[in-house]
Amino acid sequence: MTLDLLRLLLTIALTGAGLVFYVAGTLGLLRFPDTFSRLHALTKADNLGLGLLALGLAFQAPGWAEVAKLALIWLLALLAAGTVAQLVARAALGRGAR
Amino acid sequence: MTPLIALLALPLAGALMAVAVPHRGARIAGVVVVASAGALIMLVAQWGIPHAAPGGWGAPLGIMLEADGLALAFMAMVLAVMAGVCATAAPMRELPTPFWPLALLAWAALNAIFVSRDLFNLYVGLELLTLAAVALVATGGDKALAAALRYLIFALTGSILYLAGVVLVYSAHGVLDVSLLAATLPAPTDRVAMGLMTAGLLIKTALFPFHVWLPPAHAAAPAPASAMLSALVPKASFVILLRLWFEAMPDAADDRLLTALAVLGALAVGHGGIMALRQTRLKQIIAYSTVAQIGYLFLVFPLAGGDGAAQPWAAGAWTGAVFQALSHGLAKAAMFLCAGLWIIAVGSDRLEDLRGLARGLPMTAMAFALAAITLMGLPPSGGFTAKYLMMTTAFASGQVVWALVLAGGGLLAAAYLYRPMGALFAREIPAFTPVPRYLQAVPLVLALLAVGMGVLSDGLYAFLQLGRPGTAEEGL
Amino acid sequence: MAVFDLALCTLILLAALAAVAGPGLFRAVVFFVVYGVLIALAWVRLGAPDVALAEAAIGAGLTGVLLLGAVGRLSRAGADEPLTSRIDWPVALAAGLVGAMLVWAVLSLAPGPGLAPAVAEILPQTGVENPVTAVLLNLRAWDTLLESVVLLAALIGLWPLARGGAWQAAAGPVHHALPDGVLAGFGRLLPPVALLVGVYLVWAGAYQPGGAFQGGTVLAAAGVLCVMAGLVRAPGMAAPLWRLALVAGPGLFLALGVAGMAFGGFLLFPTALAKGMILAIEMVLTLSIAVTLALMVLGPPEGGGAQ
Amino acid sequence: MTVYAVTGALLVALGLYGLIAARGLLRRVVAFNVVGSGVFLMFGALGWYEGHTDPVPQALIITGIVVALSASALAVGLVVAHARVSGGQVLEDDAP
Questions:
Q1: Residue B331 lies inside a defined structural domain of this protein
Q2: Which of B124, B164, B196 sits opposite C146 (nearest CB)?
Q3: Cα separation of B167 and D45, whole Å?
Q4: Shortest CA distance to C200 belongs to which of D41, A68, A81?
Q5: For C225-275, how does the pLDDT look when each residue is reduced to its tens digit (9 = 90+)?
Q6: What pTM does this model have?
Q7: Looking at residue D31, which CATH number applies to its domain?
Q8: What's the pLDDT score for residue B474?
Q9: Which of C150, C243, C258 sits opposite B128 (nearest CB)?
Q10: Range of the domain at B324
Q11: Region of B319 on the Ramachandran plot (φ > 0 left; ψ -120 to 50 alpha; else beta)
Q12: Domain tally for chain B?
């Protein structure tokens, strides 16, 4: 019982923290002046936010297989976000953005 | 394999093979034509209503397929037209290779629609037909792109409205099968469902005022594709309309609604005829003629539907409309194939360029004249039988106004078809590239079939009654 | 949870509004993708994870990629979207009327179990445990066979649009990617993972959400990425093997359907063999779907890298 | 779950407006997809009963999603080819 409660609290805390990072990243996307700082805000904050969400949800997973799936999702999202950020930055450079 | 399944599987298999072996497209289509003819003869010889339940489940869990007289007659018409299309298209080098798989896919979709008893399966069939038909227009090259796009937008609007109606039908009744639906109690949402499905199908059938996509699309496509598009494609959605209004939900028919459909049909007859009079290119005349000829089909709704469905004359009007759809298909295919051959011969379809061509290509001129007789509704053609049957009902049921539409439409057809005929039979000796005789014979055979429908109307009339909804059966 | 549903529906409507009537074509397409993801979320709420997967992968993902690609090609062709300033009131009235009728119909329909109990009853005879897969590949296999052909028809429909009529050339535009760039690295890393996920989705479809169309989409995405990264050349229809890959799935489906007539009917899968037959169809169908979708996304040949 | 069905109905109206009234061709393709998903959402939400959705609509919706994608792919191809030829993404009103 206490273990379940502890897991629930951890989940709430971690997902809550993840959401804060998401909000921060979105604010940065909206408020920052140019493409590169926006990318910076978005990728950094969202990658961390997603990691926290995944970690928080892992405490609710019924088995290790689900934990592995969550980890895989996070890794794939990291990889995709990193690649896309690079490509967007390069495209922006190519078009003469600062 | 039963002949019914063969009729569905053959064009599908042919299309797949034509993708795998593209340079053999024409030959594959030829094999499909011959094999389908065999299967069709076996089915007609049974003189019954063969049916199939793919997967063995049957409705409501599975899909039911049924080849009643209506479905078989349309499949036979499609087969005849496709045979003609394949014969004329085979030697045409300028047709892009994808024409063959697309034509076979359209054929497969048509057969699938004619035999399907399931409203959602009909949707999938309609979409297959639409995509293949739009792509066939696009085989006309850069000049056909705008027409293809307009056609696609109209067709997609139509199919999504139809699908919305199907959703309401399933949500209210829990079944999609036409026969099972007829046995369910009416639901209050049925009117909305029928309205949406009908509106969608009207757009697809190109009934006035939803016809604006048809003339440019049918005129821009290569002639063999135009023949398929004008003769066959609008018939699929019309057959679904017949299934809905006469089989699935005959009780939803409201007299005002049925009259509204026929009024649109009458307007189509007038508008299509007048527009056809004003065109200078043959393919555009034929395309506008399709708009007018589709109009006649919609007179069936007040003549044979609603309160009149139980009357003894209803069978005549219903069968007359089917005769009209079938004979128009054969005649219109003949006309477009003639136009295609004349374009090969003189490089244009402008009326002034066709002057005197009857001397050079007499068989095609003969074919065009016979097809014109059918479209005007003169005896002894299939078009005459169609109009005779519908007029008899109009007088018997006291709806004389529709008889006037039929008569007036015939006069208009005579007027707009006189111009190309006058040009063809002008006393001039044109310069032209010769066309092989066997190619000239193709439209002639189709036109003769259209006329023959009238000569042999007794047998066809009896055949069409197989599985016909309604109570009364009246001979000619 | 009612608050959540209401909020989600509001977001869906707002995203749709931005996609249909918002300013800027690129923005509209981005909002359309967001809209698709939100719709997928709605499907999860409605207890329909199979549809959620299909919507996310196909409705939002692939359609979004197609539309984004078109935005790029249109701006390169100098074809800007015309500015629409005012509302077309007659059309708005007609659309509003349809909407009002639908809302009325939706509100007057009483919920019911539909065919769910009937499907559950015969599920053991279908050879699969996921009822949605049972409906798709057994009960209504004729629909699904035709649907796989619809997909093929759309692809063939793109061929007449190839530049210069060279429909057998390599699909799509020429792709320039740095051989050691990020995209190339991503392209090397992702395909094995995508292969795993794609095959898993098909395999799992028999007893849990997933299936040939969802799996095929994942594989197609990996393939398109490989082409964009310059790792492999875009397939061209001059190669018989690619053409065979396109028709293998529907072809096997049709062939096994006709073979079913030996057991008593078209598309009839006897219970003992159903699982194997359905899985065989799904696996080959996945391959065909993947190739078809990848070729669709790459677009008709634009004259680069002709073989 | 009626709220989802009503949302679907509203999406149909919104999308229909765009499909018919928009002039930009690609925008009309987007609108077509909105109508499609609206119809599907209606279908699924109406099939929802006691926590589950009827599997038959689910299967039909998946079929519908694939059909809509096919139509979109052909439409996008035509829009791009038309733009290449005409230099625009509007249909001239050549219809009488």
A1: yes
A2: B124
A3: 11
A4: A68
A5: 888 888 888 888 888 999 999 999 999 999 999 999 988 899 999 988 999
A6: 0.95
A7: 1.10.287.3510
A8: 42
A9: C150
A10: 270-476
A11: alpha
A12: 1
